[in-house]
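Q: Please design a sequence for this.
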């Protein structure tokens, strides 16, 4: 288990200009630059602190001897796209869906995938031991500006869908970019594809005046009303750095991310005559059912979009995703991509000639239940190991926490990385069974805790 001090699941996220200061950003980037050298692309979201952090990041990279390419303001996946095609590395300044006062730094490798844990450790080590390379004055390289990436990224998305079919359908779409980085892409993309677009919160603004950047049902109430009032076919919302897409159907119902994932999976498998799907152990059984019906194979990784992206690359997978609406199309970007997700969804509605609610209803339906229970951090591993032992009469997967399969469904018990709790997530055919499974999961943790008092 790696004991990281600065990095979270994807990069470093902190309060801007309190912890995440220019000094911090610059030194961390110098450490990254020392390992990468070569050409490093830099881009970021619409936060008020992004230009400040970006300039510090650029200074750090230059001081370590890198060439810097400034891509400007753009979605996280657009930076990943650019790095994969043209550069040796990349740094993205964003705090994704966090509140406006935060910002963050994400580092990617030459494939545009978030860097692996051992590289994060090396960067931390250099950061704390103060030994990034500082090149001499005559080895300092240049900053180049590349402002073509957004147009190129949008064109690439267009090429990957049936633009004619989408154009013929003339779908009415309401887009809520939450004043984040999708402002630069989604409205333009959908208009180019021939959709009738109404925009909300589509002017970039680091104060996020329209709504909270996290696209939850609560935060999307205005989009839901707009879809209903305008009689639109679809509502689309993104998080702050535009790597996630959330849909509202034509009746104004919020569509959960696992449903969108299953819908696009079905379509990708049909279109390609099967293929390898990668997801995490916490994903719905619907993903497996669809794979079985349409000639696919499923691999489940530990929870985390970087792990899914890396597995897709290593195993040459077709498509991947997570239950939160992050979809990965590995032949385009090795990471969650909101623009291609959006284009695929309008393509599916256009080609199947059915409203979104109907397409969702046709998917396998499971009921789920989420619970949590407190457990001291130092007991988590012991408790998990013991649960795996006492449930050995069932099929058990210990890739990430303990996932137990029974005839009724499954339950996964996972330790939180940030809080002294276990999260317990169950899925079954009926609400009642899902509840029962979740309660059983909680009781397994309680039994183990009791025996240790
Ligand atoms: Mg995000």
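A: Design:
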């Amino acid at each position: 288990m790696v004991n990281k001090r600065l990095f979270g699941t994807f990069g470093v996220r902190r309060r801007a200009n309190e912890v995440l200061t220019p000094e911090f950003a610059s030194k961390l980037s110098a450490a990254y630059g020392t390992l990468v050298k070569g050409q490093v692309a830099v881009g970021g979201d619409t936060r008020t602190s992004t230009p400040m952090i970006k300039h510090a990041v650029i200074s750090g990279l230059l001081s370590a001897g890198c060439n810097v390419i400034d891509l400007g303001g753009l979605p996280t996946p657009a930076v990943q796209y650019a790095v994969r095609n043209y550069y040796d590395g990349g740094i993205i300044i964003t705090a994704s869906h966090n509140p406006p006062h935060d910002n963050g730094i994400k580092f990617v490798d030459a494939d545009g995938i978030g860097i692996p844990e051992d590289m994060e450790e090396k960067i931390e080590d250099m950061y704390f031991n103060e030994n990034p390379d500082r090149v001499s004055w005559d080895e300092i390289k240049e900053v180049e500006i590349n402002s073509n990436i957004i147009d190129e990224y949008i064109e690439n998305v267009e090429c990957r869908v049936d633009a004619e079919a989408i154009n013929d359908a003339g779908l009415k779409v309401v887009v809520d970019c939450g004043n984040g980085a999708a402002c630069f892409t989604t409205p333009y993309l959908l208009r180019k594809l021939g959709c009738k677009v109404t925009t909300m919160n589509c002017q970039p603004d680091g104060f996020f005046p329209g709504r909270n950047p996290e696209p939850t049902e609560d935060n999307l109430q205005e989009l839901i009303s707009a879809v209903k009032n305008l009689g639109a076919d679809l509502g689309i919302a993104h998080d702050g750095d535009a790597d996630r897409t959330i849909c509202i159907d034509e009746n104004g119902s919020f569509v959960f991310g696992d449903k969108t994932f299953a819908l696009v999976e079905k379509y990708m498998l049909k279109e390609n005559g099967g293929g390898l799907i990668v997801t995490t152990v916490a994903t719905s059984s619907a993903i497996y059912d669809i794979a079985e019906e349409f000639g696919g194979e499923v691999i489940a990784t530990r929870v985390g979009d970087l792990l899914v992206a890396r597995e897709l690359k290593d195993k040459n997978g077709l498509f991947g995703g997570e239950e939160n609406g992050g979809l990965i199309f590995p032949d385009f970007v090795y990471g969650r991509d909101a623009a291609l997700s959006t284009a695929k969804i309008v393509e599916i509605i256009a080609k199947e000639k059915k409203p979104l609610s109907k397409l969702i209803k046709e998917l396998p339906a499971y009921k789920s239940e989420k619970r949590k229970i407190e457990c001291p951090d130092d007991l988590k591993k012991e408790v998990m190991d013991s649960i795996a032992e006492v449930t050995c009469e069932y099929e058990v997967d210990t890739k990430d926490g303990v996932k137990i399969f029974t005839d009724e469904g499954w339950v996964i018990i996972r330790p939180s990385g940030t809080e002294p709790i276990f999260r317990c997530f169950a899925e079954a055919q009926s609400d009642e069974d899902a509840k029962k499974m979740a309660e059983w999961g909680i009781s397994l943790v309680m039994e183990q805790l009791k025996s240790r008092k």
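Q: Thanks. Anything notable?
A: The mean pLDDT is 95. Residues 12-147 form a domain with the Alpha-D-Glucose-1,6-Bisphosphate; Chain A, domain 3 fold (CATH 3.40.120.10).
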